[in-house]
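RECORD TYPE: inverse folding
INPUT: structure tokens
STRUCTURE:
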């Protein structure tokens, strides 16, 4: 659904257009930002949490335009996603083109996830920046989980992370910043090497004990659990329905892949980051037993427009699969800081 800008926002866009003209020969050149430059200019963990919280609340208030992400699938285990969004309050507009090829690291010695993001001037539509989008994705995704965890389960003492890749590392870095009562973090991955790598990588950021574990033990001990594994049409059902219990909060980033589908269907409440995107994935076959009844969207809860957890004995599932409004505001923050730092290269269109 299209979003109609307010008069105040239109003035903001006009002013932003003038700002961009001072930096670039707008319409004739762009700023190119590499992954390393995005990291240098990018927000840190706490800044990212603040950015993502604001945009999720904008999303909850419907102050955005974002069609459900479409994709192509050349192989059964991979995807490309096209993710456009327009977030007027953040002067952010553009599109992310990202892929996930899980076999890349082993077979080709290439990253699993790569992609590019284009940022556009809202006043004229012309592109003003092209940048790496893999790093900002690795930052915004776990930030959403951490914010969701704090809203739905602020008193949680035990957190479980399934999947110890890039996203798993990010989740473990963020979660102590929002769950202030944490006593221990449990982690699991099919690769013990990845578990060990995660522990080493998060040491500078986390002072909560981290313990390697198994899915059944984690399901029995953790208040809050998250998963960032792989996305498949059919569920792997690694965590069984009989292992979870009332009062837990489950936060998958991988659709219905890792969990017994009955957990999501029989949860007391099921929320999603985007209803439209989940319905699109259902139409593509990712919920073969049907999409659970959706209570509302994550941003609506963060903005206090609808209630989240209302009882300590509710089993709640919140499926946050990634929405491009987050990518656009992260891209805008990176661009503005890169300009301030003198990073990037101007390239002709």
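DESIGNED SEQUENCE:
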């Amino acid at each position: 659904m299209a979003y109609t800008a307010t008069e105040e926002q239109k003035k903001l866009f006009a002013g932003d257009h003038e700002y961009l003209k001072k930096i670039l020969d707008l319409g004739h050149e762009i700023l190119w930002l590499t992954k390393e430059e995005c990291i240098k200019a990018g927000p840190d963990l706490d800044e990212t949490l603040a950015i993502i919280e604001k945009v999720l609340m904008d999303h909850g208030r419907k102050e955005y335009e974002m069609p459900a992400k479409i994709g192509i699938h050349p192989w059964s285990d991979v995807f490309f996603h096209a993710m456009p969004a327009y977030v007027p309050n953040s002067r952010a507009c553009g599109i992310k083109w990202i892929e996930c090829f899980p076999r890349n690291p082993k077979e080709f010695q290439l990253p699993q996830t790569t992609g590019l993001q284009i940022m556009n001037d809202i006043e004229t539509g012309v592109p003003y920046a092209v940048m790496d989008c893999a790093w900002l994705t690795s930052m915004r995704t776990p930030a959403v989980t951490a914010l969701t965890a704090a809203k739905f389960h602020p008193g949680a003492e035990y957190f479980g992370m399934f999947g110890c890749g890039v996203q798993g590392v990010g989740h473990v870095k963020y979660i102590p910043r929002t769950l202030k009562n944490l006593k221990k973090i449990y982690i699991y991955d099919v690769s013990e090497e990845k578990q060990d790598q995660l522990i080493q990588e998060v040491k500078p950021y986390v002072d909560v004990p981290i313990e390697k574990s198994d899915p059944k033990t984690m399901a029995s001990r953790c208040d809050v659990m998250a998963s960032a594994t792989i996305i498949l049409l059919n569920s792997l059902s690694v965590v069984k329905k009989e292992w979870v219990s009332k009062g837990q909060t489950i936060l998958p980033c991988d659709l219905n892949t890792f969990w017994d589908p009955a957990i999501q269907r029989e949860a007391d409440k099921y929320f999603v980051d985007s209803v439209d995107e989940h319905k699109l994935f259902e139409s593509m076959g990712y919920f073969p037993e049907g999409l659970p009844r959706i209570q509302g969207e994550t941003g609506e809860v963060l903005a206090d427009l609808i209630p989240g957890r209302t009882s300590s004995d509710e089993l709640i599932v919140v499926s946050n699969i990634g929405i491009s409004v987050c990518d656009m505001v992260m891209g805008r923050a990176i661009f503005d800081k890169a300009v301030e730092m003198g990073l990037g290269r101007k390239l002709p269109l």
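NOTES: The chain has a mean pLDDT of 96.
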